[in-house]
Amino acid sequence: MSPNVFSSQLSRRNLFRGTAVGLGALAAGPTLAACSGGADDPNAPAGIDDVPKIELGPPRTDITYPEGYVGPRAHDRAPFGDGTTTFRVVVPQDATNVGDWATNATSAEMERRTGLKIEYVPVLVRGTDGSIDMTKINAMLASGDLPDAFLGIPFTTAQLSLYGQQGLFVALDDYIETYAPMTRQAMAEYPDLRGLKVSTDNKLYTMLGVNDCYHCRSSNNRAWVSQSYLDKVGGTMPETTDDLRELLLEFKNQNPSGKSGFLPFASSESTPIDTYFMNAFTYNPGNPGGNRTGGWLRLNGGTVEFVANTPEWREGLRYLHQLGQDGTLTRATFSMKDTELQQNGNKGLVGFARAYWWGSFFNPINLDMDEPWRDYVAVPPLKGPAGVQYTGWDYYGYYTDALQITSACASPELLVQWTDYMMDLEATMWTYAGIKDDNWSFDHSGKGINGKTSLFANKLFPAPAGQSWGQYAVMYRSSDFRLGEKVDPSAPTFEAGLYEAGQAYEAYAQPKEMQLPPLIISDADAAAVADTATAVTAAVKTGLAQFSLGELDPNNDADWQSYTDQFTAMGIDAYLQAHQAAYESRPA
Amino acid sequence: MKIRDTAGDRTFHVVNVAILSVFTILVLYPLIFVVSASFSSAEAIANQEVYLWPVGFNAEAYSTVLASPNLITGFVNSVFYTVVGALIGTVLTVLAGYAISRDDLPFRKSLTFFFLIPTLVSAGIVPTYIVVRQMGLLDTRWAILLPGAMSVFNVIITRTFYKMNVPNEMLEAARVDGASDFNFFFRVALPLSKPIIAVNLLFYGLAQWNGWFSAFLYTNSPDLAPIQLVLRELLAQSQVNPAMIGGGDVSEIIKRRELFDKLKYAMIVIAMIPPLIAYPFVQKHFVKGALIGSLK
């Protein structure tokens, strides 16, 4: 069904809206909530005047969705661009996965499907250590060398808010209301989505994408143990902090590997260990880092709280201190380089590891069934002496960098439709996996990662360079979509294994009200907050190592006092107030 | 007749050879290690089994490099930027350096000071970007060659070189013989400046060969990228930590990491070869030119 059918009959938007809602309800159930929910709300976006609202037609019938499926659906949609204008879109440079954007197979397919001509401007946005480097993007913005849009560029919400209010980026709520049915569906299915990207003036200066990775929600809290070493020392899967302490001692005393240099407990300098252990004493969100708000902050009945100076934290330090005294937690735990950890893993020297995934302690790593990484199983959260048993669960990590339209763009509505089209099921498959039927196909013949009927099968993933857009598109990869990938039971992929691992943690997730959502700190406070955040991060990390290794004693009141006093000296109170203010004033 | 070395001479030789050997090993070992590692298997490198000779000998890394269009284009581009950048830079520097070395140049002091301003105050990235953009150089080869084409440091060295080696008396003698300024420059001063030309070519050539920032900032087209930018991108992509990106698919991260582990040593070897080839040819001029120019 083409939405343009209506445009000749009705010009007034309000008249049209009634019709469209009715048709939309018939056509695509999930959008109903979004439309009717917004109708009575005076703050709801009004849409673009005199333009009929675009609605999705009925989903394609050749695809069977798993039971209870929430996520992208495939629709037949006619091209809307006539190819007369070419849009300049800045994209991240990535020779390994995307190759040349201009000749990429997905770029050609998107042009064929949407009719929109795009000139891709690739920019390198990562430094040599993998960190985000926005030098060139900043030079473009500051010099007025504006493209029509930015796609997949890692702007923080604070930057979106700033550039949007400066008029560099276009506010998109009304455009989405009129031109973006798939985005509206995603916003209805993920009610928090808009709030994660909205600016301080309650406007949205970015399109919205979803990449909801189930296992990533607990990825900062996972630990692994070698099943065969566990069996060798006659142990069972540890359930409490005391169990783990004993297991590590057994590992140390019996050395199940039989090789010298065995590490009962292994981790690397880039891996925080407090996220695993402290959650047995109190809910500890850790330091999510990157562009998220400050570390070790949580909500307690709506009040922002700092975790790393609480009495419960001290109990946790006492436990780690014990491990240090046992000699199972050593200096190497805090200082080991990532590559050293991988070498130790390769040599079979790792007993228990606090790590993101198997690839953190095996390199190279592949999917053969006899690969040693398959021996390592996830250790569920530990129960502390006071019965506390949490895992830090990230309820807000699923947004993507998506797309921003600049004030230089003459026809934002076309780019909005282009972006919206990327959230279609088939377009999402294309952008992330590449050429249909060569690399992937719709396949309902097996079981997906979550055990339901599969939605699609990947034959070749990641796609060879030049075929897909990697992870840079505006995707709608909902959890159900991602878990609908068909699993070959004879050779399960990493994602299948990580899903199982993630399940061991979900039951212990902290209540959602305890997690501090991503916030935008006001400009007035931003510099001071960033300074304090840096100092706090250093102090917590140093304190953790010093108390664990016995340089400081958590049982000594003077040591503990001086540890907590340094946070006061850093201005933790003002820091908490700035976060509290940002939390309370955030647009709902 | 052969004179026997005294005990003192012999001790001197032994100590001399020993110390020089240590230095030679210090310089040579990293080169040998990198070459060996580039011919070793990825597993051997990951497990640090390579010490001196290749372990699990194979040339797969080089065949991957040769099959990668970006790296080939980057290499060819880098050779182009190096040659053209060295020529442009050297011509400008010799002209400027010679002119401000002449005592009879009007406003010589002010001109020299004018050259020095950018070394004291630098405009920063955004203003420079605006200039390059307004001149219409964005996304062209000129954006890599022209900004920073001439280095003030080199101009000062060159100026001092001319002051030392082309004294006023020589100019006066040539004048007596009826030489014009241009005649004197082309027939007397220039033939005397081989060492400083060699030094300038090497400095500018090396700077272009090692440079990535201009290309990173001013160009978008992958066809213009020098090898250092291609390598930088490969390195950046391989370092992305799964914990840093929400929703990253781990198999994509492994793909990057494996590619980088496989290629890194071969890439160092390839990036190292041209300077290694060029050095011996300019080296004999190097000491003369750079030291005479800068010290006195």
TrEMBL record, chain B:
Entry keyword set: Cell membrane, Membrane, Transmembrane, Transmembrane helix, Transport
Q: How does it sit in the membrane?
A: Multi-pass membrane protein
InterPro entries under this entry?
MetI-like, MetI-like_sf
Where in or outside the cell? Cell membrane
What cellular component terms from Gene Ontology apply here? plasma membrane
Gene Ontology biological process: transmembrane transport
One Pfam family, please name it.
BPD_transp_1
Q: Does the keyword Iron-sulfur apply?
A: no
- Transmembrane feature ranges: 12-32, 79-99, 111-130, 142-162, 265-282
Q: Which domain of life is it from?
A: Bacteria
Domain (ABC transmembrane type-1): give its ranges: 75-278
Is Lyase one of the keywords?
Answer: no
Q: Which family does it belong to?
A: Belongs to the binding-protein-dependent transport system permease family.
Output this protein's name: Carbohydrate ABC transporter permease
| Source organism per UniProt | Desertihabitans brevis
